[in-house]
Amino acid sequence: xxxxxxxxxxxxxxxxxxxxxxxxxxxxxxxxxxxxxxxxxxxxxxxxxxxxxxxxxxxxxxxxxxxxxxxxxxxxxxxxxxxxxxxxxxxxxxxxxxxxxxxxxxxxxxxxxxxxxxxxxxxxxxxxxxxxxxxxxxxxxxxxxxxxxxxxxxxxxxxxxxxxxxxxxxxxxxxxxxxxxxxxxxxxxxxxxxxxxxxxxxxxxxxxxxxxxxxxxxxxxxxxxxxxxxxxxxxxxxxxxxxxxxxxxxxxxxxxxxxxxxxxxxxxxxxxxxxxxxxxxxxxxxxxxxxxxxxxxxxxxxxxxxxxxxxxxxxxxxxxxxxxxxxxxxxxxxxxxxxxxxxxxxxxxxxxxxxxxxxxxxxxxxxxxxxxxxxxxxxxxxxxxxxxxxxxxxxxxxxxxxxxxxxxxxxxxxxxxxxxxxxxxxxxxxxxxxxxxxxxxxxxxxxxxxxxxxxxxxxxxxxxxxxxxxxxxxxxxxxxxxxxxxxxxxxxxxxxxxxxxxxxxxxxxxxxxxxxxxxxxxxxxxxxxxxxxxxxxxxxxxxxxxxxxxxxxxxxxxxxxxxxxxxxxxxxxxxxxxxxxxxxxxxxxxxxxxxxxxxxxxxxxxxxxxxxxxxxxxxxxxxxxxxxxxxxxxxxxxxxxxxxxxxxxxxx
Length: 652
Prior knowledge:
By secondary structure, the chain is α/β, with parallel strands linked by helices.
């Protein structure tokens, strides 16, 4: 005789389903622990807290999953219990929810593989830009096998529930009023507690980032990120008086050749070059996808995947100690165009009211430059077209039918099929986008106007596919292959550009948008913000390796200094090559904000928590220090003032 199922009554199937969900979440958590075994803290108390914190958040997630089923069970009349209608609805939604959760567990594994974190705002973005994401999944993974596997697991799950008698118990039992209201009250109470009192940040109990991330529930983290994509600085972070913040920042940004021209709550100033010998050279600015400093032989890589970049490091202004502001392409774009520290939440590139800001295009247009933005995919992705088009750049992109808003006055030019030799989920290959840029540069040269051509590459991105036969690593096999192809494409760009009549009067800037990976056990893994940057063809006298610690936001102010320009500025970045430059850089996630000065790091968290560390660059480790009030106030002032300027529409 078959053993009676442990869960009885009308709630049997729901209880069984929740038990499966909690067990699966526990297994997934253990998988992540083993995955990061060398960086996870295995102290017995840390392990127990990881599991119990995880269970707590899993219970909250389970309550949200159970809300609709328990409401259905509470409202369905007794006469329909066990009816065909009841069976169809119950089996269908059990199967559908099971399928979604199994798929989510697989998605969490692939997301962890890429980002070493639970679902966050990146996962939220992936739901918005479905074309690129779905195409990327198709090209990166065997989708029929994946979906087929999820279906088989879902069917096996249903069969398990059947064998355990959960369906039979559910369809053969009824609920009295007390049971209906009791079950509903318990679930609603848990949902209300988690939605109003429990934030996802409470799971971040450990100084070891991996213990904290593994403590979270992926689904709960996803919806927490969805709710908190934009964050008001003063609501979430330690703050000082605004006047005090701006006074400190204005003092830090002041130079011997700058003069403030506006009120206390502004950093707008005129910068005057001492030589006053301006050079109106063309600029080709290349923002390279995911180009970590660690890929270069210059920084110790022995795989020889960047031979061209390593060669030009000897023939350019090469920045050896420069750091990205963030972990996403839009953060890199924000840093170089606005020259601003990363504000909390989403990048300004993706926020509303981000048109007609004071960007580098204002400086170039004041000298009658044409400014253009080149992207090999559809610039609708990550709001790039809206940001660049709304700030004075003509657009050149692949396009799939998305249109610019009416308030954007620049033109959009589609890259045609006959200009494309290779294309994947993210766009055309780097050679193709460089060729398009070259043809537009030829047109600008003929018109007699100087130009700024801003190019965003795409090839160094999963699925890491590129034209065959170009390099000795097969397409689609590894990131190393994608990096080496991008390096190859850059070599071809310079080979072709060297034959152009405008080449001798053109400066090329190459810089990464962010590193290929930013995850580590510390709350901000500083070494994973280290990126290379080059200013090329600016004159033999300017060939040097810059060892000064600096930021992505400094690259254009340094270029303007090399050009000896007088210009107006709303920039936080400064000329790295100028006397008296103070070494520092700004880096962050969408919630953590850091100021690093040589080997000291202050990190602000969105729970109004601040931590001060010494950073050992050799081991890339952070060690706690007693709080430095002056350093803290400086960090707060930079980030608070930057947020103030944007939210109060003073970056225009």
